[in-house]
Amino acid sequence: MKIERVTNITEWINAINPGEVKSAYLPCDKVQSLNCLASRHNQGRGKQRGKFVHYHYCSDLEVATIICETREDYLTNKENGEENSWKTQIPKDFR
Question: Count H helices, E strands: the chain?
Fold first, then answer.
């Protein structure tokens, strides 16, 4: 898997499409920004575009992984008690 370098977290989140998994080096001091921006995306632009972004951070390697699914799939998984099913897509090296 290719690990990117992120200069703009908002652009990185906006560029992902449903079904994609992206990983990037991200310093520990930027994790709170990622958390806030992913949440804001899911409540605003993501809702408008029908997509939902999850993220995972591996602090040992300082690698963030974002996973995108359709908003419909997210809501279906949440209703079925499978809201953590997206975690299976996190690359094993970054868990």
Answer: 4, 4
Structure tokens, 40: 């804001």
Q: Are strands 3-5 and 63-70 parallel, antiparallel or unpaired?
A: unpaired
Q: What does residue 54 show for φ and ψ, rounded to 5 degrees?
A: -105, 155
Structure confidence by residue, pLDDT tens digits, 31-76: 999 999 999 999 999 999 999 999 999 999 999 999 999 999 999 9
CB atoms within 10 A of CB 90: 17
Rounded CA-CA distance 57/27 in Å is: 10
